């Protein structure tokens, strides 16, 4: 209960100003395409040079919390996921916005983010010692199986056909091999210097999601003379809260999946949203509605990606190991003040540690309040005529891809992938499985290489990858997931043929 | 267009004369390329050592850090060697032995001849770490185990052809044993995690990170791969003291360089100003707080160090 003792520090005038500033600034940065939470936090580090350690961390913690949630704004309204965490949000969120329900989608996403986020931070507060053991339990073999589990999700994710889903997943896996291999340093498919570092995930996200949509909008703009004006429905916060309570399943699955997966170093943040989305789709009685603007999709994805924020800091705060790129940046923010995470942090600087954690807790609430306020205004974006909208999204895409590492190469990558995706979409392929392949490929590969090197030196491949309770459990889940997909595919085939026969 | 601008700029430079250029330099903010991501040790230190650049007694202009991460630094250094403007407004951070080892191994567009060193700011030696409850108490225990179980002693490090890998090769060579070096993806942090989680029996890591992990009670540091003991770890013996002939070839030197072709006047001015900038008291304080060992070297010392490193690494990597 130590954290309650330090609650007062968050509300001292300067700290609270920083918390407000960090939250609002974070929402804006998060909503800007191309600015991932990692970069937003890195941009703020120089400002903390002049501040006290605790205050500096308040700023960083608030910014981290709200950038993750802010990413939902561009994901829902523009179909540009700000970070891998927001991919799943676009699937149903953007469809809702297109139907004029942008305000509702944004309100749901901020409310779900707050619920997930608060739960995640509470886990960080109460269960940190237990969780740190859990974070260490995942070795190379387990991470490999986890990535394979993600691959099995590919087939069923946002695609009418399992085969097409798997195919686009394979394209993603192939794209992931481009560049220097991280472990051995071998060069693969580098035909142009800008591919040397591999395909940047943020640039790829912008290209794959935003560009096909821009092209479609331009194509439509020619045919329809007057711009079609979507009526933006007003939606009250109260109604959104009621709506959120209507879907307890999605909220629970999202929050739990996000917290558990967020904990795993190196994997968590990127796939939490997608896995939660897929799980709640599988458990929902209305699974056909997913992808057509179903509130459950938004709730699951957004509660998961904010639930991950708290647990993702467990390895950093207890073991001094940054489990995610953002955690690595936060480590820099701590070190600059001479504070070492780990026992030193909680024993010698409890004021810093607990103020930081408390600020994330309060940051979640503030983020929700400001987000809800913005939601009503932002949803009017849908009223912008399509041709104007297409131009705006296109320029934001170029800006976003360039700003990732100030490189024109990323802009070319974004444009090529976007153009390719435009044609793939016409054949019924979708971007989400492709991106998942792109994210999971390197995780699976690196952990397999590393695991097999350890295995060869010690117990041998077979027993390294196929023994131990955690390995066996993950393998079981992989098999169950494949079996489920196959069964669903067979069942839907049978019913469609029956329907066709009746017709 | 870029070519046109460049030739125009060259013409102007030629007209105004080199001496005038050096006197006016820098007239606008300077950019410094770091070939690792934001938040990494190199990025973190680069931001600290350049924070006083805007002072009147330093450059008088701020230095902005630009990250070009990827492929263990190769992406950034390739860019720096081939595309960066050699006008003195584009500086780069180097990591030795990384970029030298990569250029020897091949597949990149740079070598020591592509860059002009300016000054060195830090030296982070590699250390051998084991989990806090490990049975290994000294390097002797490690070597003894490796001798009894050839190829079975797993130890982690951040990738191939980086300082950790060089130290690993030197330890194996000095002791005449075969061990299993496991390169990890995700830098020193991932390598440290695998030691703490007990996935491997030991690991080579940065002194600064290992020092923090030891303070947190997670690991024990058995030896330093440097010529002298570190001020941060006065109780930990060097490899040499423990009978292993390992020199400082794996020490991760970090410093500032410019692309080949930068005007000599600019190089001279930077070579005088930058080491002074590193000596600033505020810089030293922040670096010490972060557990980052400083080691300031002038341009001439760095040129010598690069040449010496290249010779050692060529010999060490010849067999790979």
Automatic annotation (TrEMBL), chain A:
Kindly list the residue ranges recorded as spanning the membrane: 12-33, 53-78, 108-128, 134-154, 166-184, 190-211, 251-277, 316-340, 352-375, 387-404, 411-444, 464-487
Answer whether the UniProt record assigns the keyword Transcription to this protein: no
Keyword Transmembrane carried by entry: yes
Listed A to Z, the keywords are: Membrane, Transmembrane, Transmembrane helix
Q: Domain named DUF112: which ranges?
A: 17-436
Q: What is this protein called?
A: Tripartite tricarboxylate transporter permease
Record-linked InterPro entries: DUF112_TM (IPR002823)
